[in-house]
Amino acid sequence: MRVSGGGREMAVSAVFTGLLVVSILLLPSLLLTSGRYGPSSSAKADWPFLSASAKDYPVSLAYLISASTGGAEAAARLLAALYHPANSYLLHLDREAPAEEHRRLAELVSGQPVYGRVGNVWIVGKPNLVTYRGPTMLTTTLHAMAMLLRLGRRWDWFVNLSASDYPLVTQDDLMEAFSRLPRDLNFIQHTSRLGWKIKKRVQPVILDTALYEADRAELLRPSRNITSNRRSLPASFKLFTGSAWTMLSRHFVEYCVLGWDNLPRTLLLYHANLVSSPEFYLIQVIRMATHWIHERSFLLPEVQRAPIDSGCTRLETVARDIYNLGG
Asked: Which superkingdom does the taxonomy of this entry point to (predicted)?
């Protein structure tokens, strides 16, 4: 049986058409299972940031992002704006926030596959009840420091931010600026001129109900007598105050948390019933630990009140100053 030339052409065309259809149908599956774009062992080679660890970057930062009721969306937005595979991120949503909001935060974080692949984002599973201007704000920061140390990832500086902050520079630019510096520097805004804070912050004795009640966060004065409910200024040391938003070296964080010297614990007890203790405690530790103030601290100029309240804005200012100092 002879096949005409036209028939052969149709047969060849049909074969090629069939191969084309099969390749189109099978190619995506092959790529996803064994190709360069699939979740195979070679995938990380094609996406370097997935395989690179924090030690592969000149500098890495550890961020605490704190949010209160209604702040889950803002915390997720700030996380996305700050995200870099070299860094570590810990999110804390106040325990007072409804369960639905805690679930929403978990959904927003888990909905970004890159966070899971790199493995550098965590949410505090047992959040703290936090009182605004109370010592529970301070204990939450210390709790975050301890968790970030225990996670075992390499990082050089600890940065605490509010969910309402937002960065003005990229992480790459910020890391480039800080890569020029010794890793044991601390960045704080401070002043010894207490002014109105003596009567409003230092002298009143308060109790933070979040320390001992399950669902109540407020500051109380043990005595309604304003005159008797005041303490004198300390005689054994000079008080300092400043911004609660700081950038602290890992070595100093270890000093505060592990406390091989008793100074951090002693000062923590003093600040337990102080109004707005986060504006005092860490600054006080740095100022009183003489080896930190003389060797390992970059103290921003003393000011009565910080001109910039945003943590991210302040870091942008520090980064710009570093560039200026470096010429």
From this structure: Eukaryota
- DSSP 8-state secondary structure symbol assigned to residue 260: S
Maximum average pLDDT range among 1-5, 260-264, 288-292, 320-324: 260-264
The tens digit of pLDDT for each residue in 267-292 reads 999 888 888 888 999 999 988 886 55
Tell me the chain's radius of gyration from C-alpha atoms: 27
Rounded CA-CA distance 85/180 in Å is: 20
H-helix or E-strand spanning residue 298: strand 298-300
Query: Which three-class secondary structure state does DSSP give residue 192?
Result: coil
What gap in Å lies between CA 321 and CA 327, rounded to an integer?
10
Report the interhelical angle of 250-258 vs 281-288 (nearest 10°): 100
Give the integer Cα–Cα distance in Å for 4 and 41. Answer: 51
Neighbours of 232 (CB within 10 A): 7
Bigger pLDDT: 327 or 315? 315
Tell me whether residue 66 is in a domain: yes
**Measured distance CA(244)–CA(276) in Å, rounded:** 9
CA 137 to chain CA centroid, nearest Å: 15
The mean pLDDT of the chain is 77
Q: Whole domain around residue 242: which residue ranges? A: 49-325
Q: Is residue 35 part of a domain?
A: no
Structural domains counted in the chain = 1
Question: 20 lies in a domain?
Answer: no
pLDDT band at 314 (very low <50, low <70, confident <90, very high): very low
Tell me whether residue 24 is in a domain. no
Q: Helices (H), strands (E): how many in the chain?
A: 14, 10
Backbone dihedral angles phi then psi of residue 217, each to the nearest 5 degrees: -125, 100
CATH classification of the domain holding 279: 3.90.550
Residue appearing with tokens 């009565």:
304
Residues with Cβ within 8 Å of residue 159, at least 6 apart in sequence: 61, 62, 63, 64, 246, 247, 311, 315
